[in-house]
Design brief:
By secondary structure, the protein is mainly α. It has helices at 2-20, 22-33.
């Protein structure tokens, strides 16, 4: 069960970044800075 939880945490933000596209880059920079 823990594996699915971890995958969701990783895949969640990744899907958002891919969907947002241009804005995803800004978010990625924020995540990288954080």
């Amino acid at each position: 069960m823990t594996n699915t939880t971890r995958d969701n945490e990783i895949a969640g933000p990744t899907l958002v970044l891919g969907a947002t596209g241009k804005t995803g880059r800004r978010v990625a920079e924020r995540l990288g800075a954080a």
